[in-house]
Amino acid sequence: MSPMNIIGQGVGSIDIDLINSVKARLKNLVGIYVASLDGLLVSYIGAGDPDKWAALTATLAALGSTYVKEMSNLMAGNHRHIYTLIQSDKGFIINFRLNDYAVTIIDDNPDELNTAVSLITSSLTGKQ
After folding, report:
1. What is the mean pLDDT of the chain?
2. Staple 18 to which of 1, 89, 123, 127, CB 3.0 to 4.6 Å?
């Protein structure tokens, strides 16, 4: 897979180490899409319509955060959204916020799910 196509300016707060780790460790990576929180494409690598994936990326990040906020209202204590997972029989999508951006990772091998979750969780929470 080629290097990420950085589009525009102001991508300094994206955790490039996390993106590079994902690219190196997930052998069946289909795509990584980075979007602004309002759905504009910032950077991507992979197939598909990048503008559509950017809009989907921001939407899913907002939905995930909203669900966790509502979960916090139902339960004692505050919960912090880490990632949203969509899994099919042939792959998965993981979506999360990274500073001021939303990120979607698409992989077509369900066996790589634990690796992806571990990379993202350790990067976003500092826990293994």
Report:
1. 87
2. 123
